[in-house]
Specification:
single chain; 79 residues; mainly alpha; two-stranded antiparallel ribbon; 4 helices
């Protein structure tokens, strides 16, 4: 994007520069429009902090991390 801006500021045609650089016009103008604005989190589903076992019981993420660390350090992991 910076390369395209450099050549456009030197007076070259926007469409030609974007074609050479490989940026779509829509992408160029969208990024230019949003330049300097902080990226906003659009929400989404929050991370619950647990996973479910096959039988439906919840298991805390910290417990899963502990199991993974134990498995990684065990001798049977490397065999």
């Amino acid at each position: 994007m910076e390369i395209a801006d450099k050549w456009i500021q030197l007076g070259y045609a926007i469409k030609t520069v974007l074609k050479i650089v490989g940026i779509l016009e829509a992408t160029y103008y969208a990024r230019r429009k949003n330049q300097g604005k902080p990226k906003v989190d659009n929400g989404g589903r929050p991370i619950p902090g647990y996973s479910m076992k096959k039988d439906g019981q919840p298991v805390a993420d910290e417990q899963i991390k502990e199991w993974k660390a134990t498995a990684a350090c065990s001798a049977s992991f490397f065999v």
